[in-house]
Structure formats: C-alpha cells, structure tokens
C-alpha cells in the first residue's frame, strides 16, 4: 500500500481540521439548545436524540448508498463488538452532558472536556505504549492536582467532569482504531441504541410522564432538530478522527469547553468558586504547557525533515 502524496496528505489534514473545528464549535454552543429543553426530562431528551438521529442517518445512508458497507461492518464480529462498546460510551456521554446542562452544571461539563486531551495522553501511554516528554508529564501532574483541589473543595459535580472526559476519550480512541467510516459507524451505533430509546419513550408514555401528547410546537420542533444537532457534529468529529493525529484532536477540543465556560459564567450565571478557579487555572496552565511542547516538537520534526530532504537532493 503506497503512502499518499504530500499534496494529498496535506489536503486530508486540512479537511480534518475543518471537520474538527466545525464539530467543536457546534458542541461549544450546544448548552443553549439543552437549556431550551430544560422542561423535558434528560432521559426523554436522550431518547429523542437517538431516534431522530437514526431518521437523519437513514436518509443519508439511502442517499449515499451506504447500506452495503453497513452490512459488511455488521458482519464483521470484531467491528460490531467495538461499535456496541462505542454506542454505550456515547449514550453515557450524551446523557451525563444533558443532565449537566439542565441541572446548572455547565462549568463541570466544560471541565470534563478540558480534561479530555489529557486523558487522551494517558490513554496513549497506557494503551499504545507512547512515551511522555517531561513537559507532558508536568502538565498531566498539574492537571491531576487541579482536579484533586476541586474534589477537596467538595465539588458536587466533579463526577460529571470525570465521566464526560473518560467516556468521550474512550469513544474517540475506539472509533479511531475501528475500520469503519463516520456515517456507517454512527448509523450502526444509533441502530443499536434505538430499541432502548424507543422502549424508554414508550414506557414514559405508559406511565403518563411522557410529553408526546402535551408538548408545545416549539418543544416538538427542538426535539426533532436534535437529530441533526446530534448527528452532524459527531459525523464531523469521526471524520476528523480518521484524518488527524489523536493529539491534534486534543488541541481542537479546547474550542468547545472554552465556549461552554463563557456561557456558564456570562450567560447562565453559574457561580465560580475558589476551587473552580484554582482547578481551571491548573488545567489551562497544563494545556498551555502541553500545547507549547507539541508545537516545539513539531517544529523540530519539520526542520529535521527539511534537512533530510535537502541531504537527499
């Protein structure tokens, strides 16, 4: 198998950056969407996200004629088992994030996604045998200290941050190593989740606590739009994950939690405690160290590649 040409590799990398940036911008402003649905229970919102995502993805699969690829992926036992795991991870991530927004813990949600790049580093070390540089070790320790300070300050929503970081980092890692494209993979994930989502919504209706018959038109429209709001950023993310190094995804992810942080403090009026300030300060410092080290190593690698090419010329 031939390596792609430099021009093709650059084009693929650039497309990955656009996909990734689009995904993280959309996720950054998503709290506004869930705040508008705060009168609907988190489980019901999740069920509709899954079902309407399936409708949207089904249309894309038909339009793009991807059924054959989906059947091939389902027939592969290893791929199917991996996608069963990723479907569970993304469902947990979605549900916890919805709970965070509607219960006024947007700060904890943003902290979870600030932690995600550092979780990616740890996963690279533990699962891929990657080695950390000294600045990366220092950044990881600093982030851990920040989280410990928040925990010591009785941060009631810390479980939200940890769950979001672990679930999404694990999801991104498994999707990156699974040989299935974005539309096919997400379609299979929603197919696997759809029976549970439909069963939950029907159960709520049977108990008289569902809202299918009582929602106002705006709520109904927002829930229907949840399919596109859910699927499109995730499709962009998985497309980016196929085109970019895992560490680059970590750099892009700073966009989403930064927007969420600003929304939490400036728009939703959440209280920023001293423990929050210390924790976020530690995380931001760690991310600056991590980013600066990555930039330095990239510059060195580029210079070495240019020197090598010059020597061969």
Count of alpha and pi helical runs: 12
Q: Report the mean per-residue pLDDT as an integer.
A: 86
Shape: globular
As residue ranges, the low-confidence spans are: none
- Termini, distance in Å? 25 Å
- Any idea what the radius of gyration is? 21 Å
| Count of structural domains | 1
Residues in helix, %: over 70%
Task: Report the portion of residues in β strands.
Answer: under 5%
Biggest beta sheet attributes:
none
| DSSP strand tally | 0
- Secondary-structure content class: mainly alpha
Q: Summarize the helix and strand pattern as letters.
A: HHHHHHHHHHHH
Question: Briefly, what is this?
Answer:
The chain has 313 residues and is an all-alpha fold. It contains twelve helices and no strands.
What does this structure look like?
There is one protein chain. The chain has 313 residues and is an all-alpha fold. The protein has one domain. The protein is 83% helix and 0% strand. The chain has 12 helices and no strands. Helix 1 runs parallel beside helix 11. The chain is globular and about 70 Å long. The two termini are 25 Å apart. The model has no long low-confidence stretch (mean pLDDT 86).
